[in-house]
Design a protein that fits this description.
Blueprint: E1 5-12, H1 19-22, H2 33-38, E2 56-58, H3 70-79, E3 83-86, H4 91-100, E4 104-106, E5 117-121, E6 126-129, E7 132-135, H5 141-149, H6 152-160
Parallel strand pairs: 1-2, 2-3, 3-4
Antiparallel strand pairs: 1-5, 5-6, 6-7
Helix pairs in contact: 3-4, 5-6
Length: 162
């Protein structure tokens, strides 16, 4: 599968997860993304970071609220999160995900549990879990291009070198 589609086990967390909960400010004194990944969600659940590699992160509404900390998204990507699915995202967090190449899907009423396998497709805007299919907001063609490129910087490097 491409970056726009994938399959992985669900890691489910609650609503209103702010960027400081994703990566606490005390870890931002370093630019080492490995440190950020190691301490992702530490204040929510100290064991959560070890379960993120290859997962699809499923959250409640308002994911990524709080500061516009791009490092929170980088920590998730570095930790190995394949995609983030939520009913709604803080606007800047959503765009930061696209900009660093982390797929996001807005999906209402998604019912899943930790460990269930989730298949997502950002192109057509679907999520499948537990034999159920959910329709999500699909990403625009431009956002899909940015994700396929590996993020906004790589997208523009590719466009400028043409």
């Amino acid at each position: 599968m491409t970056l726009l589609a994938g399959t992985g086990p669900a890691v489910c967390i609650g609503a209103d997860i702010d960027t400081d909960m994703v990566i606490a400010g005390r870890y931002l004194r370093t630019k080492d993304r490995g440190v950020w990944a190691e301490h992702a969600f530490e204040d929510l659940d100290p064991t959560l970071a070890t379960r993120l590699r290859g997962c699809v992160l499923v959250t409640g509404k308002n994911m990524g609220c709080g500061s516009s900390r791009e490092q929170a998204v980088m920590a998730l990507r570095e930790a190995g999160v394949l995609a983030v699915i939520a009913p709604s995202f803080a606007r800047i967090f959503f765009r930061n995900c696209i900009n660093v190449g982390l797929p996001v899907l807005e999906c209402e009423d998604l019912a899943c549990h930790d460990g269930e396998m989730i298949t997502y497709d950002c192109t057509i805007g679907t999520v499948n879990v537990g034999g159920n299919s959910y329709i999500c907001r699909s990403l625009s063609p431009r956002m899909q291009e940015i994700l396929v490129s590996g993020g906004l910087v790589e997208y523009w490097k590719g466009r400028l070198s043409r």
